[in-house]
Specification:
single chain, 93 residues, mainly alpha, globular
């Protein structure tokens, strides 16, 4: 359990808490997409999305259409729904 918690926090930190956008960081986040733990995968999806890495599209669609959404992916979907509403109704951020 400690290992998963550590990996989750590390992925969160790397993906969401720093603004650096290097190939090494994107590759490390992409590697985390293969994790069994949905929270770790979710944090990697968020980090890759923030960095506009196109490799995230397939795995993201897979997660969003799965029968069980992890809470990070659920938050991501909720954020995307809000963004979509803002675009559709031309609302300010």
């Amino acid at each position: 359990m400690k290992t998963k918690t550590c990996a989750n926090w590390a992925t969160f930190g790397l993906g969401s808490q720093i603004e650096v956008n290097t190939k090494e960081i994107r590759d490390a986040l992409f590697k985390r997409l293969g994790e069994e733990d949905d929270e770790i995968r979710g944090e990697a999806l968020v980090g890759l999305s923030i960095r506009k890495d196109k490799r995230v599209l397939g795995p993201l669609l897979k997660e969003l259409t799965s029968k069980t959404l992890g809470h990070v992916v659920f938050r991501f979907k909720k954020r995307m729904d809000i963004i979509r509403l803002r675009i559709n109704f031309q609302l300010p951020d």
